[in-house]
Amino acid sequence: MNKKGKRVAPPARRPSNPHARLELDARRAERVQTVEALRRGRTPLALIEVAEHGAKVAEDAVQQAMQADPPPPSACREGCDWCCHLTVGASVPEVVRLVEHLRQTLGPDELLALGDKVRQVEQQRREWKAAHPGAGDPRLRCVLLVNHRCTAYAARPLTCRGFNSSDASQCERFVKSPGKTALPLYTPQLRLTTFVLDGMRAGLSEAGLYAERVELTAALRIALEVPDAFARFLAGEAVFAAARLD
Asked: What is the predicted pLDDT for the residue at 182?
């Protein structure tokens, strides 16, 4: 009450998550699109459509969040690749889109070299985890990095699109000293891409397909080596189960 004894409304509180509705709408949009695309036809092109739609939904949602809640200046620049030393969890449609992009942009020899690199890095990851049980994931360079640049940037997964930072030096310390450095992230971007990925996975599950997150390097190896991997996935086979992210 004020001095005259009249009741005064308390000041409005800022919502704990002002982007909650945006997150849920983005998740739903991607889930619905995933189901509809696969209902129209179970083809690799449908999976690519699902992944492309997810990237667009996430991009639009992040832009809306930034307009309502501007982030600090971004430190992300071409040639800065600290985030590319972190484990990437992706959906199978994102892997399909990525592989098709690589097949269109790389020559035969380059694809063979990429396959060799994929096998080497996957083996390094397995050996490191076996030698360091319970220690999380190793900080290994992404197999798609060449001269500090992503060779498939246009088709990168949602996890990569969500990562951001306002301080590159903090990113470097985070990679070199896991667990000892906090990252200055713009949280809405990270959360929105995660919600879209979750919507995509929900749509896959609703369509009766394998919906677990897969570790990108292991999934690329399966996609490049296993005959008819995409067709077998679309037939309901858990062909990517060996790449499931722990």
From this structure: 84
Query: What torsion, rounded to 10 degrees, do the Cα atoms 202, 98, 20, 203 define?
Result: -10
pLDDT in tens, 137-195: 899 999 999 999 999 999 999 999 999 999 999 999 999 887 778 889 999 999 999 99
What is the CB neighbour count within 10 angstroms for residue 1? 7
Q: What is the pLDDT of residues 101-140, one digit of tens each?
A: 999 999 999 999 999 999 999 999 999 999 988 888 899 9
Half-sphere exposure of 23 (CA within 13 A, CB side): 14
The pLDDT tens digits of the residues spanning 56-90 come to 999 999 999 999 999 999 999 999 999 999 999 99
Question: What are the residues whose beta carbons fall under 8 Å from the beta carbon of 32, sequence distance 6 or more?
Answer: 203
Other Cβ atoms less than 10 A from the Cβ of 18: the count is 12
Whole-number pLDDT of residue 3: 52
